[in-house]
Design a protein that fits this description.
There is one protein chain. The chain is globular. It is 51% helix and 0% strand. The chain starts with a helix and ends in a 16-residue tail after the last helix. The chain is mainly alpha-helical and 84 residues long. It is built from 4 helices and no strands.
């Protein structure tokens, strides 16, 4: 199993969550947002500001994941979490 398999599986599962947001102006897919939130919480984030900081710091890890993943359709190339 490659190092990103668990993250891709979680991304696929989070794709089943209905997205209540208005599709106009969306920058990130809901599965990506959920994955960033989960990764941030697992890394010790305590609130939304911590998660945003985590996402910003981890952009390189996210880029590596996107280059190796075909798990979901993305609206943007960055989600900001470390998988490596």
């Amino acid at each position: 199993m490659d190092e990103h398999a668990a993250w891709r599986q979680l991304l696929r599962f989070s794709g089943d969550v209905p997205d209540p947001r208005d599709p106009r102006g969306l920058r990130y897919s809901l599965p990506e947002l959920l994955l960033v939130i989960i990764a941030g919480l697992l890394a010790g984030s305590q609130n939304a500001e911590d998660i945003a900081f985590f996402a910003e710091v981890q952009q390189d890890g996210c880029a590596r994941f996107h280059r190796t993943s075909t798990a979901c359709q993305r609206t943007t190339p960055s989600c900001g979490f470390s998988v490596g």
